[in-house]
Amino acid sequence: MTDSVRRLDDAAATERFGAALAGQVRIGDVITLAGPLGAGKTSIARGLLSALGLAGEAPSPTFAIVQPYAPPETRMPVLHVDLYRIDDAGELEELGLEESLTDSVLLIEWPERAAGHWPEALALSLEILPDGARGLTATVPPAWKARWHQI
């Protein structure tokens, strides 16, 4: 796995990055989104979902934990997952996420709540820079190597 670092100047750039990601995503992909509150995790997810055809704004799945999207709402099935309220990684089994990998894309916010659970995920980590921009660090697994350079 290799790391890649990018600067996202504002919220619009963060959503555009998510939209670019949508052009490369495939069924079975897991994308994890880590970073502090307000760093842009949901903005990346919204950009991706919008580019996959979602009309309107995607809500943060903080309270629902799993927000599903499926055709015709989106071009492919996506589960937008927020693990912020998960206290024990054992609770993941109840969510049925592993079974969803055969027919969906998983977007997972707060993956550190289940550390090590998705070792082959495209792991995106956001930080808020002193000037208000976002720093994006991506840990790119082998399955994403060729696709990553097109984003």
UniProtKB/TrEMBL annotation:
Localization: Cytoplasm
Gene3D superfamilies tied to this protein: P-loop containing nucleotide triphosphate hydrolases (3.40.50.300)
Annotated Pfam families: TsaE
Any Gene Ontology biological process: tRNA threonylcarbamoyladenosine modification
Protein's UniProt keywords contain Hydrolase: no
Key words of the record: ATP-binding, Cytoplasm, Magnesium, Metal-binding, Nucleotide-binding, tRNA processing
NCBIfam families: T6A_YjeE
Name of this protein: tRNA threonylcarbamoyladenosine biosynthesis protein TsaE
Gene behind this protein: tsaE
